[in-house]
Design goal:
The protein has 84 residues and is mainly α. The chain contains 3 helices and no strands. The chain has one domain (16-82).
Length: 84
Amino acid sequence: MDSQKCENKEKITLTELELEVMKKDIAGEFFPPEATDEERKALASAIDKADAYCEKLDAYEDIGDSLMVWFLKQYEAQEAEAGE
């Protein structure tokens, strides 16, 4: 599914903070006890968006080991297509 165009998919919208904390979380650099309340809420929001997106596409078999890695790839593919 990673290589499919995003044309028929719902647009993924992330704030800069959601994208930042999601990347930190994937890299193992996000430690909730040291994060601000705003950062924790942003990560929770990104997780909710990823889950809803996956459910909408019924893509649970396509996500592999990590919902967030899959979601980030979907977002990056969408942004790359938008820049074409």
